Fold this protein.
Amino acid sequence: MKPDSAPNRNDPCWCGSGEKYKKCHLNYDIEEQLLNRNPQRPQPIPRTQEFLAGMRSSCDLAKATLTMVEQRLRPGVTTEEINRWVHEFTLDHGAIPATLNYHGYPKSCCTSLNEVVCHGIPSPEVVVKEGDLLNVDVTCILNGYFGDTNKSYLIGEVAPETARIAQVAKECLDLGIAAVRPYGHIGDIGFAIQNHAHAQGCSVVEQFVGHGIGKKFHEEPQVPHFGRSGSGTLILPGMFFTIEPMINLGRKAVKILGDNWTAVTVDGKLSAQYEHTLYVSETGVEVLTA
Ligand code: MF3
Ligand code: CO
Ligand code: CO
C-alpha cells in the first residue's frame, strides 16, 4: 500500500519492489499529485474517424514502400535506383513522395549509408556494397495525410559492429515506443532510448528529433531521443508522432556536409536509425507503420 507521506528519493520504494523510490514510483506519484491538484484531465485531441483512417492508409503505404525496397536491395544498386523505386511506387499508389522539394530537398526518399546519420541524398554515384549499413527513410502523402518510416538494412555479410549498431538502434526504437503512455510525458521516450543506448556503449544524436505528423510533415510535439522521464509535453490521446532515434557507435556529434542536407558523424563511425509513426489512443499506442 502507498503511504501517506512519500519516501525519500533514495529510500526503498513503498511498493516493495526493492528498487529505490526515485527509480520506481516517484514519477508516477508526482503525476498523480499533479492530476489531484488539477483534477481536470487535459482534453484529448479530438480526431475524426476520417483522420485516423487517412493516417492508417498513408502509414500502410509508407510501410509497403519499405517492404518493396527491402525485396529489391542488393549489393551493386545505386541509391539513385532506390530513389526511383520509391518515387514510382509512391505515384503508382496514388500518393506523393513528401521529401521531394520539401524545403528544397531534391529526392523522393533519404538514403543514409554507414556514417551518414540521416538525410543522405540518393545519387547515381553512390553504389551500395556488401558489408554496408543503409538506412532508407520514406514519407508519403496519401489523400493529404503523411506516413513516415525508416529502417536500416544490413547489406549481405556485415562486420559484427555493423550488425550491433543496427540492433541497438532497433531496440532503442522499440523501448521508446514501449515508454509511450496516454497522459505520460514525451521525456519518458527519450529517457528509455538514452538509457539503452548508453548501456550498450553507444551515443544518441541530439540534433534531430521525432515529430508530430498528420496533415503536415513536421509539427508539434518535438520528440527528443534523450531526456528525463516525467519531463516535457504531456502525451495526449489523439496525438500522432514519430519516434526515430539515430544511434551512433562512437560519439554523438554530427555535422552537415556542403550539400546542406547530408548529416554525418564527426568521428566517421557508424550510425543507425529506425522510425515509426504512432497514434496515441485513450488506452495505449498503435504503431501505424509496423
Ligand atoms: N523523413 C525524415 C523524417 O523522418 C525527414 C526527411 S526531410 C528531407 O523526419 F527533406 F530530408 F527529406
Ligand atoms: Co520523421
Ligand atoms: Co522519416
